[in-house]
Design brief:
This protein is α/β, with parallel strands linked by helices. Helices cover 39% and strands 16% of the residues. The protein has six helices and five strands. This is Peroxiredoxin family protein.
Length: 151
């Protein structure tokens, strides 16, 4: 069994799901999975925000729409609704449910202490699946002899 550590630093729907899908896949294949949320990636594990993530429409070339269109009111909500509809067709769960699945399968979920301090957050702000708030050094220690992926 190998160890996969995934750093999630983006708080958009399209920034969070790749890490969740990779962690879940690693667990399903019998590997150890560690998720480390930092900067705006913390939105994925903050109780009040985790199920309200949106698709970034401005400056996102993968959407194949001009940035001018991306700034129009409602475009982010529209793109988010479309993505969620497609994910639902594939039976991909909402973020909160995904966190439960990963945690219940043995995945570890951590928040970056420096970012938590910088954003003036407390452990109570996070979902119950959060294992701990750790320093970067602690994350590296946990990730020794494994693979680190930055999404």
């Amino acid at each position: 069994m190998s160890k996969i550590s995934i750093i999630i630093s983006k708080g958009s729907l399209d920034g969070v799901y790749p890490g969740l899908i990779m962690a879940n896949g690693a667990l399903m294949e019998g590997h150890e999975a560690i998720l480390f949320f930092t900067f705006f990636g913390l939105d994925a594990i903050i109780k009040s925000r985790m199920n309200k993530l949106k698709v970034a429409t401005v400056g996102n070339p993968a959407l194949h729409i001009p940035s001018l269109i991306g700034i129009l009111p409602g475009m982010s909500s529209f793109a988010t609704a479309q993505m969620k509809k497609e994910m639902e067709k594939l039976d991909i769960p909402p973020v909160g449910e995904f966190m439960e699945m990963i945690h219940d399968a043995g995945g570890k979920i951590y928040a970056c202490k420096a970012t938590v301090d910088m954003f003036h957050l407390k452990k109570e702000d996070f979902c119950e699946q959060l294992d701990d708030i750790v320093t970067v050094g602690q994350f590296y220690e946990m990730s020794l002899d494994g693979h680190i992926i930055f999404t």
